[in-house]
User: Fold this.
Amino acid sequence: MEIERKLYKNSSPDAIAERLLSAGKKVTAPVRSGKIVDLKEISKPSEIEYNALTSVQSAKKVAFPKVDKVVEYEVLKDTVNTLEVDFEAFPEQVLFGVKPCDAAGFIPLKAVFNWDYADQFFLKRYEKTTIISFACPKADEYCFCTSVGGNPGSTAGSDIQFTRTGDDEFLVEIITPKGKTVSALFEDILVPDSSNIDKEKFLASVPKAFSFEEVSAKLSSLFESPVWEEQAIRCLGCGACAFVCPTCACFDLQDEKNSGKGTRLKLWDSCGYSAFTVHTSGHNPRESQGERWRQRVMHKFSYMPHRLDVRGCTGCGRCSRSCPVDMNIKEHITQIDSL
Amino acid sequence: MSNLIETAEELLQKNKVNLIIGYEKGTGSKTRPVFIRKAEDAKKLVFDNNQKQNLVVYLLRSEVKKAGKTAFVATVPALRSMLQLASECQIKDKELIAIHARDNQDVIVFEDFKSIEEFLTTADTGFTAVESELLAKLMAMTVSERFDFWTSEFEKCIKCYACRAACPMCYCGRCTTECNQPQWVAPASHPLGVFEWHLMRAMHLTGRCVNCSECATACPVDIPLNLLTYSLMETLETGFGAKAGMKADAKYALSVYKPDDKESFIQ
Assistant:
């Protein structure tokens, strides 16, 4: 559909959040707790932190939670009883106040979870999720959305986008039919955008650090390059980067069982771990941290674009901000681009 | 800064070491670990009070062992981590050089455990005022208040294991959490799995943690994990007279039998 443009004349978007909550939607938004801001389910608009640059974690958890029940089972003498997940019971939810790079993350996630198998755990949740993003008025040195096809006001992946255009004004873009349906909950407090506001003027500036396409093309000849071991020498091999990433979709299946009864769980996993995809034989396909780092970069910048026709990185910079040893992906990809 | 850089240059030039692990300026306001192999690269080294990482975490890695003799820039907790590793038979005397920088111009080079042990007898290895205050605050809580405090902190945990990866004492080749036949610790980051993980880790660090706070610094969701080991440290010190990382040949308090133990039940 063509994007509908409206204005919302108010200093705070709280009234919009209030409408969503009153309509019984599960609303997840950025919330401050102590020193950090992270995405949480809210019960009242006053909990929302609108001024944070980004949340520590990405928005993927609303459709791909860190722990997801796949099935419950009971092993009996000659049969196994299972209790399947009721996909229809997933709630109607709204992601409110997330960033364009969060919304963009759902594009590669959708591709991964639809690749060789339609993963209903993700897809059904996603289907019931409306994404209301807020365009970025500020950026920091870890942001690089413009290098990976995005920008601080990109509407890709969003259903509705708000852009602050004044102390008491927001531009509201209604982008998708899903957005149109949800906007009905607050359409009466929107007014027409008669002046045809120039959104660009209100967006952060994010200089382009490299060209995604160039890097992607280059990577196919760099598999054996020493750059991986060089860059990964300080990597500690934790999963912080993968777990805060809006596009990392790897998971592990684990059973929690007790005397024949159990639950199978889908848990976040990371290619940075030394035990990631270790074979039953004991063979480890990626023995060194350099090989594991190569996998991370290749997957996002080479394999995903080639196999799924999506970019595996949204340039949000979360991995770099969260890394305990400053493995800065923008810096590393820029270095690879210069090889 | 020249003193730290000059020291590093000299060590590399005279072939006393093949590798120096130190800190360089990172991106944003971060300082990060750097691996220096050539004297001309030593100028990258920086000293500032933002030095966060405990570089001892790298010393047992195969890439570092392969490099041959290595020097590393060591804060006071890092010096203690090194002695603790020695007491756990993970490193040998004179295998490593520790460069302790108190500020830009005041660098001490330690070539053996004995000189580190001597240095630590006068160094400040106690809790900081902030740490003591936090510990007092925790201990003043009732058991149920403390449980609520940790429940709310652990809710944030995503089990990325940055705490484990950043800890110089978490060097097990295969962590118990990765064992699934049998499964000792629930691998999920649900409340039970998170409690099990952090409590198991704290117990495993009893008498070994040197209070470098690396776990808390590394945590992306800001859980004050360092608080978990404070009172264990205090208990070990008051009950057993044991303090981690002060002697390279220390025997681990929880696995030593002494006929003259002050507790009568064990005699």
